[in-house]
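Researcher: Next entry in the queue.
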Amino acid sequence: MNVEAFLADARAEIDRVAPRAAYELLQAGGLLVDIRPHANRLAEGEVPGSLVIERLVLEWRLDPQGAHRVPQVQPDTRVVVMCNEGYASSLAARDLKRIGLRHATDLIGGFRGWVGAGLPSRPGGSPAIT
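Model: Structure for this entry, 130 residues:
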């Protein structure tokens, strides 16, 4: 299997959301989780109100039954995963669904799609939850 087929398989398991829909989910109490590395957040900015959890520890911090999860996460929490352009986030969202976050999805176009849609951003560099 090549990476394109791997990505297509992951996306078949999630209902991806466009930037405006992700913004509405965030406003309604959902979580937008930024998995981008610090260098990307520093260079391009961040979304106000997003939760910064780099990919390395994502499943441990968002496992709804896990001992190391962040307190905002329950099995029914709406979580939108965001990367730079919407590729790595698809794989991450699929993995989150598999560990019990049934409403996990990802942001179509990633952070760059968010900014391109004219949605709020701010200078980046916030520390990630470790």
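Model: The chain has a mean pLDDT of 96.
Researcher: Noted, moving on.
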